[in-house]
Predict the 3D structure of the following.
Amino acid sequence: MLYVYCDNCKKNIPSPRSGKNFVTIFDKDLCIPCSEKLEQDIRVLMAKEKDYHLEAFAKNQKSVLDRIKK
Ligand SMILES: [Zn+2]
């Protein structure tokens, strides 16, 4: 039995299936609501960037992910 816990809300994900009911971003496992929240946070940060750069996305994604404590 595989146990996956969301690194953000610490909830157990029942019958975990990667990409289905949880996603792994770098070293973080996230449930779908948390990953959507995270994407939203990244989008807000990206809106402040002048242009869409992959480096800017990576930087903002990292800063949002760094807020999640494992
Ligand atoms: Zn979660």
